[in-house]
Amino acid sequence: MSDHHALAHWQNTLRQVLSDYVNGNFLRVRAKWSFPIKWGISAYAAEHALRKLIYAAYPLAGHFKTGSLTAYLDQFNSWPLASSDPETVLLAALTQGYLLLAELVRQLPEVRTDTVHLEREFEAGTYRQRDPDYFSPVVRLVHFIRRQMVPHLALAAIHGSVGDLNYARGYSDLDTWLVLDEATVTNAALLRQFARKCYRSLTDLYRFDPLQHHGHMIATAIDWQWYSENWLPLDTFKHACRLIPDKLGPEIRVRDSALDARYSFEELEELMRLRYARRWRPETAYELKDYLSILMLAPALYLQAKGLYVAKQDSFQLAREHLPGANWDAMRYATQARSAATTRVRWPARSSSSSGSTSRKLGEWRRGTICSW
């Protein structure tokens, strides 16, 4: 494994653990149900995340000879998690990890410099005029980000079909892209504050689409200095709209993303083969939508594996041109299902606005067969 590949693997692991943390995936069940009254990280989840970070960091020692890397491995490989607060340990591993990432990236050769085209600004009036009831959760979410989360963010955007208003009513999910500033991601107290705000903001994310299969997409200002287009192709930003003033500027440093892209496509291929072998069928609306979303992402991942990083909405025609003899029946079915989904699952009255109510209601809907397609 080269120094580039070792650092890329660790960066991807670090970013995934950060994303899981701020989206509430490590919360104890009781904390999810009682938030914001209670907040607490599962010790099991924290230990699992810490092991992932350490296992991903070990190969770095063969390529980077720095005291900070040695200290990081020594500290978190022997941390007595059982006698410590799990969140304190996790926050230390994340914040010190990003400080270490920033140091190691500077030791690598210069990478490609590119430009992020994020020219449109979110205008609440446009969405209210288009469909005030349908887009009310989107407008509330943007208001919350601008009022509560902006001190922690270097960039925030909505992309995908809601970003360019080429949406399918009742089907489209809400794709957000939040880039934490360096001060927040390297300070445990600030990162803890952001995580609580981020988890609270998920209420309106799931009000818009209770069957959504992901939370906020997360990156950091440090990632911006060594960016992988496998996370989100730069071409996607031309269809997006920014939610806050951009503190990063248009310039971005992009690393080689080929290994990431090949791994993502191979992972998708393996999942499809496994499901086919097991004769898997979706049994709930949540499983069906998740499956359709994976199908419609396949052309973009295929193109990325070929070295072409384009926006998802532009990938279908380009993939057809690269695969003229392919059978597109499954993709046609997924597209028809998206177009036919005209009824959105209704959220309860606004009074049930806590994230605890969110968790309970999502559990009820996702276990049930709630699908009008």
Low-confidence stretches: 345-353, 367-373
* Major sheet description: 5 strands, mixed
What is the end-to-end distance?
46 Å
Instruction: Tell me the β content.
Output: 5-15%
Count of spatially separate domains = 3
Total count of helical runs of at least 4 residues: 15
What oligomeric assembly is this protein in? single chain
Mean pLDDT value: 88
Give the class from helix and strand content and strand pairing: alpha/beta
Q: What's the arrangement of strands in the largest beta sheet? A: 2-6-3-4-5
String of helices and strands:
HHHHHEEHHEHEHHEEEHHHHH
Binned, the helix content reads 40-55%
* Shape by Cα distribution: globular
Indicate the radius of gyration in whole angstroms. 21 Å
Q: Would you report the number of β strands?
A: 7
Can you give me a brief rundown of this structure?
With 373 residues, this protein is of the alpha/beta class. The chain has 15 helices and seven strands.
What does this structure look like?
- By secondary structure, the protein is of the alpha/beta class.
- The chain has three domains: 3-105; 112-254, no CATH class; 258-367, no CATH class.
- It has 15 helices and seven strands.
- The strands form two sheets. The chain has a five-stranded mixed sheet. A two-stranded antiparallel ribbon has the order 1-7.
- The radius of gyration is 21 Å and the shape is globular.
- The relative contact order is 0.12.
- Residues 345-353 and 367-373 have low confidence and may be disordered.
